[in-house]
Amino acid sequence: MVKDLVTEGKPLIELAGVNKYYPLGKNAQLHVLKELNLTINQGEFVMIMGKSGSGKTTLLNIIGMLDQLTTGEYFFNEKPVAGLSENEKSELRNANLGFIFQQFFLIDSLNVSQNVSLPMVYKGHKNSSYRREQAQKYLELVGIPEKEKQKTTELSGGQQQRVAIARALVNDPLMIMADEPTGALDSETGIAIMDILTSLNDHGKTIVMVTHDEDMTRYASRVVHLKDGEIIQEIHGKRGEVKS
Length: 244
What we know:
Oligomer: single chain
CATH superfamily: P-loop containing nucleotide triphosphate hydrolases
């Protein structure tokens, strides 16, 4: 049995007996996640690790309400998720989650400030001056306030990821979901991005990050190892050892 390493604090994510199947044809299916149980408390920095095909991105997508579990239970901040409609999940996701991806997914036709403020548009904030102010606030937080009017295509990869982090933060979500956020960056830039995420966690932001890079575990408070859709090990990351 995997040792329980959940830290003190209110559970934000609770998965119980989660299975995920994908159809492979008329009579076949792929069992991606298998009777998975996982609790993530507010304020943790949890890193999900595993080889390609282990199910880590599927797990992140289920936690992020971008994909639906096949069987099992999922509670977000004590609210059951499995029975929600797509519109309800979209509202819950946009209000509480911020996403950072390896490929940034910025919109080239918009400038930096407009990209950062997009989640506010989706949330229904109609005051454009307020959106600009908030975008500028988070661009300052990630260290590139002077880039607000530039096109994203004029930025380096590291700058684009900083824009993506600011976009993920602009609605002040309860949790940041990061899928290989340093995978497309050089080592020095990757360290700078991880320093930003670490600082956010130090200020109370819950972070769940998928990676295959063992060097990243030094930033985590807890590391969850997946293999063939099952959690095979949970250990304290180096920051978890320091905090505990």
